């Protein structure tokens, strides 16, 4: 019996087979199927994480879906990051974003009502107030409430000062004056005009930081152009409503071309203030911690993308809501001039829609490519 066993063992060693592994040889590579399956599962998890983080409000706790080591996910040891961790998403940010979403929906409803009742200036006031609330809520969630309030107040002050100087000197926009339709009007400048500078200033700044997340001058110039693009809609619409008048009408639906140069100049100031007060400068991390002189590396950016950040690199910390505000404004103004306002104005719809739409598409495209 032992002779048979020894012979069988020798035969197995001769032909390269081993007991329990029929037909396998020691020198053959083992199948790589488990390794491939593991890689596929990891890739699918990362993709689903990015989608979930894109759909959830910014700051919503989502640790169960995040890979180990990512903000809001489990630590490498397996222990979830608690809400008190410096990198954990803030639940307050979720509530602020929820307020922003509600205010944005109300703003859209008010814009629709404005199209149906274009001669009621009170609806214009409601739209601008909701615009300001939306921008403040989204900015507070993206940065901090203190930084958002400071940037908004500075943009409002800069816009008011420019309008106050403009109505008295004709600089930098040109010779114009406000009618009695809008109030309150401290110093002859309607308060909602200054609020509009603040709300859309924050939105344009966020769009610029998504289009050009690094550098100092490029984001500021991009944001100024994005904010000026809005005036391709704003001035023709306000002239229709009789909210202000020009001393000498210009070629763009009664608007002088010098007005847009003035808008660009004031928008540059607004972008500088927003960039300074939100802390969005080179060398600042997405969490808001200052890292003097150190840009975010490609490895860090890729790592944040793998953690489902959806483009949260330096300069774009959760600015999805502000980018959405800019995009919605562009879409609603285009739709209004194209089909809602009477008479429609396809030329203004095309000019403003292409200008604002280009910045919106660039902002969303850059975010998703990350």
Mind explaining what this structure looks like?
- The chain has 370 residues and is mainly α.
- It contains 11 helices and 2 strands, in the order H-H-H-H-H-E-H-H-E-H-H-H-H.
- A two-stranded antiparallel ribbon has the order 1-2.
- The N terminus is likely disordered.
Distance between the termini: 69 Å
Spatial strand arrangement across the major sheet: 1-2
Give the CA-based shape.
globular
User: What's the pLDDT, averaged over the residues?
Assistant: 76
SSE inventory with pairings:
Elements lengths: L1 H14 L17 H23 L35 H26 L4 H22 L2 H25 L6 E3 L12 H21 L5 H25 L2 E3 L11 H21 L19 H9 L13 H21 L5 H24 L1
Antiparallel strand pairs: 1-2
Helix pairs in contact: 3-4, 3-10, 4-5, 4-6, 4-10, 5-6, 5-8, 6-7, 6-8, 6-10, 6-11, 7-8, 7-11, 10-11
Q: Would you kindly provide a brief summary of this structure?
A:
By secondary structure, the protein is mainly α. The chain has helices spanning 2-15, 33-55, 91-116, 121-142, 145-169, 191-211, 217-241, 258-278, 298-306, 320-340, 346-369; strands spanning 176-178, 244-246. The chain has a two-stranded antiparallel sheet.
Relevant terms:
370 residues, mainly alpha, two-stranded antiparallel sheet, globular
């Amino acid at each position: 019996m032992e002779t048979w066993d020894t012979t069988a063992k020798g035969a197995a060693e001769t032909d390269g087979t081993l007991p329990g592994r029929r037909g396998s040889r020691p020198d053959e590579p083992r199948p790589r199927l488990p390794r491939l399956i593991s890689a596929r599962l990891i890739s699918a998890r990362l993709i689903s994480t990015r989608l979930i983080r894109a759909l959830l409000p910014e700051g919503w706790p989502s640790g169960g879906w995040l890979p180990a080591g990512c903000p809001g996910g489990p630590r490498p040891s397996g222990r979830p990051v608690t809400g008190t961790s410096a990198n954990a998403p803030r639940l307050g940010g979720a509530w602020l974003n929820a307020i922003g979403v509600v205010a944005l929906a109300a703003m859209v409803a008010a814009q629709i009502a404005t199209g149906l009742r274009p001669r009621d200036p009170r609806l214009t006031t409601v739209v601008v107030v909701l615009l300001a609330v939306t921008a403040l809520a989204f900015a507070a969630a993206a940065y901090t409430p203190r930084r958002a309030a400071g940037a908004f107040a500075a943009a409002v002050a800069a816009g008011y000062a420019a309008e106050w100087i403009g109505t008295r000197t004709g600089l930098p926009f040109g010779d114009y004056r406000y009618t009695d339709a809008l109030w309150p009007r401290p110093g002859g400048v309607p308060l909602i005009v200054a609020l509009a500078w603040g709300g859309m200033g924050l939105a344009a700044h966020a769009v610029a930081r998504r289009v050009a997340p690094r550098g100092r001058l490029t984001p500021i110039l991009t944001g100024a152009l994005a904010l000026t693009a809005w005036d391709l809609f704003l001035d023709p619409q306000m002239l229709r409503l009789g909210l202000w008048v020009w001393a000498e009408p210009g070629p763009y639906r009664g608007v002088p071309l010098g007005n847009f140069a003035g808008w660009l100049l004031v928008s540059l100031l607004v972008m500088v203030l927003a960039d300074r007060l939100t802390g969005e400068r080179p060398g600042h991390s997405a969490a808001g911690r200052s890292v003097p002189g150190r840009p975010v590396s490609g490895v860090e950016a890729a790592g944040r993308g793998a953690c489902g950040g959806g483009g949260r690199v330096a300069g774009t910390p959760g600015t999805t809501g502000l980018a959405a505000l800019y995009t919605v404004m562009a879409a609603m103004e285009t739709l209004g001039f194209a089909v809602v306002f009477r008479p429609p104005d396809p030329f203004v719809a095309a000019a403003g829609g292409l200008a604002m739409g280009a910045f919106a598409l660039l902002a969303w495209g850059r975010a998703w490519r990350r």
